[in-house]
Amino acid sequence: MTLDNLIGKLLERINPDSAAIQRLIEAAQRNIKDSELAELSNENRFDAAYKAIMQLSNAALQAAGFRTLTSKPGHHQATFHKACCNL
């Protein structure tokens, strides 16, 4: 299944915005650093790492001209899967 087949179901088409993509990448970099802080609890380190993965997946999708429909169930899974497996 192509990404275009998922328009309206899990994804929507967008015009890539390089500034928004850059902000996602910068936020992911900060979260990666936070996930490495030994003084944080394992739970908070995991949350920061998860957030970084989500931000980078979103950046990849947006660079390709797509965004997940957050109103649909499973949008986190769709973001990861489509960014990792379909781009």
What is the structure about, briefly put?
This protein has 87 residues and is mostly helical.
Give a verbal description of the structure.
A two-stranded antiparallel ribbon has the order 1-2. It is globular. Helix 1 runs antiparallel to helix 2. The chain is built from three helices and two strands. It has about 90 residues and is mainly alpha-helical.
Secondary structure layout:
Blueprint: E1 11-13, H1 18-35, H2 42-63, E2 66-68, H3 75-85
Antiparallel strand pairs: 1-2
Helix pairs in contact: 1-2, 2-3
Main sheet makeup = 2 strands, antiparallel
Sheet/helix structural class? mainly alpha
Q: Can you count the beta strands?
A: 2
- Measured on Cα atoms, how large is the radius of gyration? 14 Å
- Globally, the shape reads globular
Distance between the first and last residues' Cα: 12 Å
Helical percentage: 55-70%
* Major sheet: arrangement of strands: 1-2
Note the run of SSEs as H and E.
Answer: EHHEH
Low-confidence stretches: none
